[in-house]
Amino acid sequence: MRVHCAVYARGLRRYSTYRAATAAGVLTNSVFGAINAAVMLALFAARPQINGYDAGDAVTQVFLGQALIAAVAIMGPPLELGERVRSGDVGTDLLRPVSLLGWWLSEDLGRATFSLVFRGVPTFAVGLLLFDLSLPGEPARWAAVLLSAALAVLVSFALRYLYELAGFWIMDSRGVWAVAGLLGPVAAGLLLPLPLFPPAAAEVLRLLPWASMVQIPAEILLGKDTLPGGSPLGGLALQAGWAAALLALGAWTTARATRRVVVQGG
Amino acid sequence: MTSVRESTDPAGSAAEPVIEAVGLGRDFVLSEGPFLRRRRRTVSAVSDVTLTVRPGEIVGYLGPNGAGKSSTMKMLTGILTPTRGHLRVTGLEPSRQRTRLAGRIGVVFGQRTTLWWDLPLRDSLALTRHMYRVPAADHARRLAGLTELLELGPFLSTPVRQLSLGQRMRGDLTAALLHGPRLLVLDEPTIGLDVVSKSTIREFLLRLNAEEGTTILLTTHDLGDVERLCERVVVIDRGSLAYDGGLDGLRASVPAPRVLVVDLAAPAPPIGVEGGRCVRVDGPRQWLELSENPAAVITRVAQRHEVADLTLREPDIEGVVAALYRGAAVGGGA
User: Fold this and answer.
1) Closest CB to B130 among A3, A14, A88
2) How large is the ipTM?
């Protein structure tokens, strides 16, 4: 456990050194959020209600998505694990008396914590300044949102970890990222809130793990009854279920991958 | 087959072997050819390695590129699962007990680093301490000792990415030793280093072996490493052992010819005498590879030419290993 705390702290510290990149990230997310929000406002000006969403809901989800984008790394960057598998450096990771999954999870949680606080919060604040967001009043809902963001990070880590583990079989995970980087933002509800999709498609996408990264946290923030079980608890349970299942799959795949590992290079 | 195997097993040695490999092998399945007509072919990187290393030994593991050195190293450290054979390292089965084994061995790959490029060396080493759960007092004591021996002081606070290769290698050695391993596995530890850095590392390894009794297994292409460090040499070629024994035995095992260097009074065409084959001419100096008693050849040369000077050269270990690789390649050819 001590080592995981040390690795977490290292992940946090590492990203904190890139101050200019962090500021640039906040600017990008804010500008993109503002453009996306303007599109939503135009759309909802024509139709005030779409599948239970109004303009305020849509704009709020846009900014929540932009605030989470860095923490859940939905468009990347990939875990460095992939590069280490490709170069064969993963061999030295395997020489350590620490589980591969635990190591990368700790490091990624450090990165995500930094991103959530220093990219997510300022981006959301910009949205709050520029637009009329629909926000809950009760502290309990905010606590649920925070927990939901944490679970979103866990799901996101588990997915990215599995993408990179594919490298043990296909030698290079870049192809996986080419697909995931394209479909992930759509399936997560980052590009468009899922309720804007045809209801049947939205129902399916909502249950897939990608939705746990943006759509479910947004519905918890907005207090939607479309969540599983009709309450924030149901949404949190869905996220926790995906996190547990995907992490378990990650652990199982790690064992298989290291058994048939081909460490590249001499 | 020119395989020569000498038993180095000291009779009555009761200590449990640090490494025990019997019939160890690893195959790789390769897919070849265009997409739809892909064929699978099995290649044996290591076919049959039997090896016992006892506590306190320094063993040099030699072989040409592609002979199976690195694959053996990966199996010993548990990051590659053997296809066949029996393997125990410090009594553990590496591929199944990799995490436990990691606490008992130290590994340095000369071409890779276990340090974190963005952290100062000191922080990398501290992270290693948590990883191996080394008590703070032990860590401080060992770090102080290693800092002195390897002269880490000047760059302990430097980020790893700014270290020179020699400094980084000393840092990697430190990281591999802070948990007090019984076995140190080194894969080309002196690759790319200058003469001074090489010598620092060699002297350090000798001292570590003498004072702590750490068993050392190293692969290298640097025969200076071998001559300075290894009492025992194991040569692998094409996946099987071609030699296992002392350094002197290695010299004796391969009939690498002695060379007679003749300085003639004046330049002359290549000398042709029985028992000596001229392999090189440089002005008045000629090199003869001897296939007979030197005295007889010298007499013959002196009878026909006016000789200013003579030197007899014993084969060096480099020539011996080269001859052994050639021999093994011919003898072991499929």
Assistant:
1) A3
2) 0.73
